[in-house]
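Homework help board

Subject: predicted structure for assignment chain

Our instructor gave us this sequence and asked us to write out the predicted structure in token form, then describe one feature. I got the tokens but I'm not sure how to describe them. Can anyone check?
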Amino acid sequence: MEIIATNRKARHDYYIVQSFETGIVLTGTEVKALRMGRANLKESYARVENGEVYLYGMHISPYEQGNRYNPDPKRKRKLLLHKFEIRRLLGKVQEKGLTLVPLKIYFNRGNAKIELALVRGKKEYDKRRAIMERDTKREMEREFKGKYVS
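My token output:
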């Protein structure tokens, strides 16, 4: 599995309820640009429209040798899921506060895949608490690093 891009901000801003592996519909020059590592998931999200799931805001930089065949870098892209998964996602997204956010894009056996997550937004105080817990854990590890524990 070759990871191309991750959305680290998503793990900071959201609680991950459930994640799915989805395929993505791409053009040839987009695949070549992905193989070069030219993708950004920072402000992307997914929506269910007319029984299909689309990814918005993912930026794939144009391939240099692609000339006129390069599509728009921020176009909406169709995600490939089974019909029952789409229906289940639609039901969950209609609940209050849940949304679909991509966590990472990678190649699995030559196919481009996206890890799509069903997430709930964090409040500002939750983010501060997570940072505080991470810092205290780091300090404790520093304290016990040189000491022998039996």
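Reply (TA_rk): Your tokens look well-formed. For the description, you could write something like this. The two ends are 39 Å apart (CA to CA). That's the kind of observation they're looking for.
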